[in-house]
Write a structure and sequence with these properties.
By secondary structure, the chain is an alpha/beta fold. It is built from twelve helices and 19 strands. Helices cover 33% and strands 27% of the residues.
Length: 409
Amino acid sequence: MGRLAILAWAFLGFLLLSADAEPARRVALVIGNGTYAEAGTLANPVNDALDIADKLRSIGFEVIEGNDLGKRELERSIGEFSDALEGAGVGLFYYAGHGLQVDGRNYIVPVDARLDMPVKLQLEAVPIDEVLDIMEQQTKVSLVFLDACRNNPFARSLSRTATTRSATALAGLAQFDSTRGSFIAFSTAPGAVAMDGTGRNSPFASALLRHIAEPGQSINDMMIAVRRDVVSQTREGQRPWEQGSLLERFEFVPGAGPAPEPRPAAEPAPGSQVAALERSVGDDKASIEKFLRRDYLTPDTRTMADMVKRIYGPSATIFGTRYDNDALVKVKTDWFAQWASWSLGLEPGSLEITPHGQDRADAAFAMRYDYVPKDKSAARLTGKARVTLGLVKAVGGWRIESETSQAMQ
């Protein structure tokens, strides 16, 4: 019933329940550590992790997320990730927060770490290569994104107390010795320090959010666009890089046609622009809530083609798969044909809006659903799901570019 609940609200269950139609599962672990007991607070890692998690859900990833995790909590999340990877085709790990390298090995720093001497490193920190090993053993494609090079006092304190050169902690992260079917993206160059950012997100997370869902774009081309934006925003102060050993082309959002032309590099956003964007959220939230209640949650199945065109525009990405208008009409027609009646509702107070520029936003909310089947022997589908929509402004109102969901307990 849980899996049916995830699929029900999206009107695509009949496709995703078919073994032949179901794409390889994609599973992500997203961690943001910002509130450190021994190193103060970083402003943006938790924001970065929350936004990246929502974006990944919108393009079809199952997401395990955790923020401000201590050592034991972090290890439990990695164990849950390992279990979820069984049978998956793609694994992704995103980490934002403090990280360091010692003797060429990279470590995640939990928020409760006490790293006053090198001997404590193995007890207090988590080696990143162990997470990569878990991914490489269970998936064909392993993707790692590390925004973990922020200037941190742990490296300085360990270096002061080190008694051997090999135990000296260095700023930034090091290259990994070897990878197998992996792609590893770093927010800045080896040994360099990344910026936390002055807005909601770090420069790296902001660029990743901007480009990751572009249809038909390879991960290599995406990183070129991300690097260009970060270099521009930081005025050459930070340059993302990557290493990898993928054997096949990978696209986060598959596209039927050629990849779109790269967008111009983002100009550094002054504080006044950030503030104006944040002020605009109130107006956007009102219009988006109206769109959800009037259109998305009350679909007019009598005029399916008109409904799809009004709500989705030319095409949309549903659970990571791109559909044009005709395909969407067929999908929804077949889906609703199963049900005698249905009701969809927005949970009060659950709507969260994340603006991306002046004409795009992500909407995340809790949705109640109740589907009554025509077949009396079939189970009734009732429950609640967390829905994430990628929206774009168009003439006449909002349109959906992407949608996905996750069952809620």
